[in-house]
Write a structure and sequence with these properties.
The chain has a 7-stranded mixed sheet with strand order 1-2-3-4-5-7-6, with helices on both faces. Helices cover 34% and strands 33% of the residues. β6 and β7 form a beta hairpin. The two termini are 17 Å apart. α1 packs across α3. The protein has one domain: Gcn5-related N-acetyltransferase (GNAT) (Aminopeptidase). It has 6 helices and 7 strands. It is α+β, with helices and mostly antiparallel strands and 187 residues long.
């Protein structure tokens, strides 16, 4: 039982620190990054606003936001978090973002999501994780499906970007499904 719930092979999860706000603010200057995060209006955020969000999230009992740091050099790669935890139902929303495009397609996101799921199911004793993803983000969709998330629904023509309409997919992962997948991966 010596497993570190915050450490993988290449990344580790830490608390977000106030001094991380400058890096996260820089990421919000990339409209392409923001348009992959959610369907809201892409808008840069100030370092002060992000620092306030970090402070609020670190105090919350229904949000567990983590920094994704590369083990080799402790570089801040992105964020992953469990949001709107419903303790009575043992459910939470999960979200992830890697800020610098140079860090995309390196496996960091998959490993961080694995750690977040392990934390959700083994540490917080949750039963269900859920997320939404816009249909023009095939890399994220492939990652979620590879990690065992199941497409449960489709919000038709939910988002609009550059004059085109896009569906928003709802994905869920149940604790027994995750356990079965991770048991098979370790044998």
């Amino acid at each position: 039982m010596e497993q570190d719930v915050f450490r993988g092979k290449h990344v580790r999860l830490t608390i977000l620190r106030k001094d991380d706000a400058a890096t996260v603010a820089r990421w919000t200057e990339d409209g392409g990054y923001l348009r992959l995060q959610d369907t809201g209006v892409a808008r840069p955020e100030s370092e002060e606003s992000i620092a306030a969000d970090i402070e609020r999230d670190n105090e919350s009992t229904t949000t567990f936001a983590f920094a994704i740091r590369r083990i080799a050099d402790d570089a801040l790669l992105g964020t992953v978090g469990l949001f709107d935890v419903e303790w009575a139902n043992r459910t939470a929303w999960v979200g992830i973002g890697l800020g610098d495009r140079a860090d995309w397609n390196q496996g960091y996101g998959s490993e961080a999501m694995e750690l977040a799921a392990r934390y959700a199911f083994d540490e917080l004793n949750l039963h269900r994780l859920q997320l939404t993803v816009i249909d023009y983000n095939p890399r994220a969709i492939a990652m979620y499906e590879r990690l065992g998330f199941v497409r449960e629904g489709n919000y038709r023509e939910f988002g609009e970007r550059d004059g085109a309409r896009y569906d928003l997919f709802l994905y869920g992962l149940l604790r027994p499904e995750w356990r079965e997948r991770t048991r098979g991966a370790s044998s």
